[in-house]
């Protein structure tokens, strides 16, 4: 409340997100941090090597190339869609409101699944680090609950605060991987450096399909660049640049790191080393080529890598919830923005409460934090985000057929159609190899796979209800904001 010169009180201005806070690098930090490069490399890449052999690095390059093709149409459409709804706004423009509302619900559930499951990983990763460094055995639940509070506070603060935190954590986790790669390159690997990983005969093997499934999963969340449009500086340029920067960096970085680890053991020996103890592959390599102190740092940075991923997804979820509250689909209270920090703090609080409920439920059931909380909650979220990418790719040419524009056919038709085919292939690969992601029974895997389509179907039903009972909300869904 302010006071005028005449002594009259005037109501406070409505709080808004901090526009112009984020540059290209800031948005890229959010996206790359969500992918958790160190965790993906140390925790998942050994399995990709075990299944795909020395040709595993190419799987990451192919996944990155596919998503770069998707980004062509996606970023072209971003110049025409200014809504804060990200995926669902794009899908609504191209495929209509019912599909858009279904996509909105799928996005909300998918991103929540991607984040909440990772609290199990935070607990198990911290347990492993404490045991490796101090020989201590810590319970995972207090660690996960402490993480919920810490991430909740990070989301409560301003977006530029989060960008600074993620910048520091991202430099730490990528830096330790660069240190490992540098040690291997300087010492020439186990038997000299080899380019056998890129020979067709080592790439076109039966295990490549499984490698591609892991590789696509390693990029999950890269499309969230558009979520930060309202807080970006010059979003017409910043958002596309951040998208290409994130995809390009992840694809090349993943492939390079996996290749250097293969060189650390040798082309002939890497499969055996990965099969013997996949969880220790990266730690063994960095101990051999850099030193035990670096392995200790890697243990610590895996924990901070998980925290960075949690904060990045938390911020993305809050902005999705904010957009849907502003649409009238979610309760209006979730659309409140902090007057000082410019953050969607009520949405953040709701997300933290939801995460706490899920974590406590799994703990009460005696679930394993990694094998069940992480994998069983993450997997439907991952599939949901893949479906959103596919729908967004299909929406691009449909949108540009209906509007007047000066964009080229390569960007509006060729690239998005190619991306849709490639993404559909990726979804088939992931579903066909779902047991590699979850280690669960066929019944559990079936439930995990059908969850995302079921959520989308529920979204279609929600659209039908809105059209009948709240026609104004339905008619204004994903409308362009006023200039």
Estimated helix fraction: over 70%
Query: What is the number of beta strands?
Result: 2
The strand line-up of the biggest sheet is 1-2
Class per helix and strand makeup:
mainly alpha
Contiguous low-pLDDT stretches (5 residues minimum) are 1-13
What's the alpha carbon Rg, rounded to whole Å? 23 Å
Distance between the termini: 27 Å
| Number of helical regions | 21
For this entry, what is the oligomeric state of its chains? single chain
Overall average residue pLDDT: 90
**String of helices and strands:** EEHHHHHHHHHHHHHHHHHHHHH
CATH architecture: Up-down Bundle
Description of the molecule:
The chain is mainly α. It has a single domain (18-475), classed as Amino acid/polyamine transporter I (Up-down Bundle). 73% of the residues lie in helices and 1% in strands. It has 21 helices and two strands. A two-stranded antiparallel ribbon has the order 1-2. A hairpin with a 5-residue loop joins strand 1 and strand 2. Helix 1 packs across helix 12, helix 6 runs antiparallel to helix 17 and helix 6 (97-116) crosses helix 20 (442-469). The longest helix is centred in the middle third of the chain and has 36 residues, at 292-327. The radius of gyration is 23 Å and the shape is globular. It starts with a strand and ends in an 8-residue tail after the last helix. Mean pLDDT is 90; it is low at 1-13.
Task: Summarize the SSE layout with pairings.
Elements (H helix, E strand, L loop, with lengths): L1 E2 L5 E2 L13 H12 L1 H7 L1 H8 L3 H23 L8 H9 L1 H20 L1 H17 L5 H17 L2 H29 L12 H4 L4 H10 L17 H31 L4 H7 L4 H9 L2 H36 L17 H20 L4 H34 L6 H24 L1 H5 L3 H28 L1 H5 L8
Antiparallel strand pairs: 1-2
């Amino acid at each position: 409340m302010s006071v005028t010169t005449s002594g009259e009180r005037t109501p406070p201005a409505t709080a808004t997100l901090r526009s112009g806070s984020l540059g290209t690098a800031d948005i890229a930090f959010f996206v790359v941090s969500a992918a958790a490069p160190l965790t993906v490399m140390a925790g998942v890449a050994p399995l990709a090597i075990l299944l795909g052999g020395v040709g595993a690095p190419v799987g990451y390059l192919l996944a990155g190339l596919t998503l770069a093709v998707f980004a062509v149409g996606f970023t072209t459409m971003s110049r025409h869609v200014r809504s804060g709804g990200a995926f669902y706004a794009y899908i609504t423009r191209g495929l209509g409101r019912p599909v858009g509302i279904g996509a909105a619900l799928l996005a909300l559930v998918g991103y929540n699944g991607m984040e909440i499951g990772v609290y199990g990983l935070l607990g198990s990763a911290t347990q492993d680090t404490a045991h490796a460094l101090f020989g201590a055995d810590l319970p995972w639940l207090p660690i996960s609950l402490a993480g919920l509070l810490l991430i909740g506070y990070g989301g409560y603060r301003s977006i530029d605060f989060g960008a600074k935190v993620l910048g520091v954590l991202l430099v730490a986790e990528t830096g330790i991987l660069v240190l490992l790669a540098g040690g291997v390159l300087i010492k020439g690997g186990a038997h000299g450096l080899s380019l056998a990983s890129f020979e067709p005969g080592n790439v076109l093997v039966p295990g490549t399909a499984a490698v591609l499934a892991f590789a696509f999963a390693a990029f999950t969340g890269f499309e969230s660049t558009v979520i930060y449009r309202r807080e970006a500086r010059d979003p017409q340029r910043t958002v596309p640049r951040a998208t290409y920067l994130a995809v390009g960096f992840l694809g090349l970085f993943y492939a390079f790191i996996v290749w250097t680890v293969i060189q650390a053991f040798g082309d002939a020996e890497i499969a055996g080393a990965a099969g013997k103890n996949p969880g220790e592959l990266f730690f063994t390599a960095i101990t051999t080529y850099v030193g035990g102190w670096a392995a200790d740092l890697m243990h610590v940075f895996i924990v901070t890598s998980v925290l960075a991923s949690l904060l990045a997804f938390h911020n993305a979820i809050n902005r999705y919830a904010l957009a849907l509250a502003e649409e009238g689909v979610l309760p209006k209270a979730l659309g409140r923005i902090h007057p000082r920090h410019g953050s969607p703090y009520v949405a953040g609080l709701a997300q933290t409460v939801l995460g706490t409920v899920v974590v406590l439920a799994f703990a009460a059931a005696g679930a394993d934090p990694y094998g069940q909380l992480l994998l069983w909650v993450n997997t439907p979220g991952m599939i949901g985000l893949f479906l959103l990418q596919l729908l967004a790719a299909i929406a691009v040419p449909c949108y540009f057929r209906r509007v007047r524009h000066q964009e080229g056919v390569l960007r509006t038709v060729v690239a998005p159609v190619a991306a849709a085919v490639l993404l559909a292939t990726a979804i088939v690969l992931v579903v066909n190899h779902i047991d590699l992601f979850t280690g669960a029974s066929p019944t559990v895997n079936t439930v995990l796979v059908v969850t995302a389509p079921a959520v989308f179907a529920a979204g279609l039903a929600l659209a039908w209800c809105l059209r009948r009972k709240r026609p104004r909300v339905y008619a204004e869904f994903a409308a362009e904001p006023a200039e």
